[in-house]
Design brief:
The chain is an alpha/beta fold. It contains three helices and ten strands, in the order βββαβββββββαα.
Length: 180
């Protein structure tokens, strides 16, 4: 048996920490549905700010709230605003099952709005039997994925336009700093 990733929130920010609540992590059920994360499911949580790594179970919060609340003992591992990675796992019998597994990965903007919905893809290439790529879940392409987490490019564009930059100048800036 191999333990593999099944779904992931990458870079969601902690919105609250409640030491006196029953242990768990409270997440937005709408976002959980996008990644295939279920209530009462155990997840691994990795704090990008502190390096803390914990395991706890998911409970659902208010739909549409974009919440990420660490409860009970887990509340001691973070501060409001910390970026965390939350990963759910599954078990497969062997590497040949990797070809059919398509873990869904959500990346987030600073306000916990979903930025991208991606999936991991293992495929056989000319170079190796188990190659890997990150795919856009809607377009099923590699080129539409970006690797600059927590940057709201639309907000950057709006800010530059508000400062009087022309559309051509904004496009050139975005192309040079946020290339796909």
């Amino acid at each position: 048996m191999m333990k593999v990733i099944r779904g992931k929130f990458h870079g969601i920010r902690v919105t609250s920490a409640d030491l006196n609540y029953h242990g768990s992590i409270t997440l937005d059920p709408e976002q959980c549905a996008l990644a295939g994360i279920y209530p009462m499911e155990f997840v691994e949580i990795w704090n990008k700010n502190s390096g803390a790594r914990i395991s706890t179970y998911v409970i659902f919060g208010e739909p549409g709230s974009r919440c990420c609340i660490l409860n009970g003992a887990a509340a001691r591992t973070c501060q409001v605003g910390d970026e965390v990675i939350i990963a759910s796992a599954d078990y497969i019998k062997g590497p040949e099952e990797l070809y059919t597994l398509k873990p869904r990965i959500l990346t987030f903007l600073p306000d916990n709005q979903v930025d991208q919905v991606l999936y991991y893809d293992v495929f056989q290439s000319d170079k190796r039997p188990y190659d890997f790529r990150i795919m856009d879940a809607d377009k099923h392409t590699v080129d539409s994925c970006h690797t600059w987490p927590n940057v709201d490019v639309a907000a950057v564009r709006a800010d530059l336009s508000a400062k009087g930059w022309s559309d051509a100048e904004v496009d050139a800036f975005v192309a040079s700093h946020f290339s796909l």
